[in-house]
Design goal:
Layout lengths: L14 H6 L2 H13 L4 H7 L10 E6 L3 E6 L2 E4 L2 E4 L1 E6 L7 E7 L6 E8 L9 H5 L3 H12 L1 E5 L4 E5 L3 H16 L6 H12 L6 H8 L3 H13 L14
Antiparallel strand pairs: 1-2, 2-5, 3-4, 4-8, 5-6, 6-7, 8-9
Helix pairs in contact: 5-6, 7-9, 8-9
């Protein structure tokens, strides 16, 4: 543990390391995280964010691929009003693993801060292909475009008009996509995660990065290049990282 004059480097702390610590050490790290104003995405990566209490989620919803509940409070993304917290379960086959995600939009940029994967009692075990198949950004867009409303400021307060049409949902997806693009540069811990995915393939995993984050090839290449500048990419031969 670092002293007060040196901030603790949370980018090197993994979820498994945090969960293996004693309750006392976990409590100290939670306090340090609060003092250093660690963001929701980083807290979720480490495993410091507790599951959202059921009584905080008041309304249910169901999309083509997900069903879940949402919180009372809302967040504004341009002219869209979305719940601050959404907890959604993937609608999979009965013998497939249960996948539940938590989406936090409180910062104005929706992000998945928690993923739970559990094998059913008599179903298939959890495998790498299961985790690979979770398209996080697609899930964010599908869920939020379904439950978002149109935000309008008024002389006294604001109004929210419910969407519901295919055109409204398509526009909402574009708004969410643009909000994520305008987000500040990725943190070192996020780039380390991208590098781990890329390096997991013997000849470079550009496609794996695309699939894991639901992003275009060009965006994946930019993020891999950013990770390479930090020395996180393992090259298999001279030249650019393999794709």
């Amino acid at each position: 543990m670092s002293d007060k004059s040196t901030p603790f480097d949370f980018s090197k702390l993994t979820r498994s390391e945090f969960e293996s610590m004693s309750n006392e050490k976990q409590a100290k790290l939670r306090q340090l995280a609060a003092d250093q104003r660690l963001g929701a995405a980083e807290l979720g990566r480490i495993g410091m964010i507790e599951p959202v209490p059921e009584d905080a989620l008041i309304m249910g919803f169901e999309t083509q691929n997900w069903r879940g509940k949402l919180s009372v409070g809302g967040a504004i993304i341009e002219d869209r009003y979305v719940p601050k917290i959404v907890v959604a379960k993937h609608k999979a086959k009965s013998n497939s693993p249960d996948i539940t995600i938590t989406i936090d939009s409180s910062s104005g940029v929706p992000s998945v801060t928690r993923i739970n994967i559990a094998a059913p009692p008599e179903g298939r075990e959890i495998q790498g292909v299961t985790i690979k198949g979770i398209r996080i950004y697609d899930a964010i867009e599908e869920i939020l475009s379904f439950i978002a409303g149109e935000y309008t400021e008024m002389q006294e307060g604001f109004s929210v008009a419910l969407g519901g049409t295919d055109e409204f949902r398509a526009q909402t997806k574009r708004v969410i996509r643009q909000a994520r693009k305008r987000r500040s540069n990725l943190s070192e811990s996020e780039l380390r995660e991208i590098a781990d995915i890329y390096n997991s393939e013997p000849h470079g995993g550009l496609e794996r990065v695309q699939e894991a984050y639901g992003i275009s090839r060009a965006t994946a290449q930019r993020r891999i290049s950013a990770a390479e500048k930090l020395g996180l990419i393992v090259r298999q031969r001279r030249g650019r990282p393999l794709a």
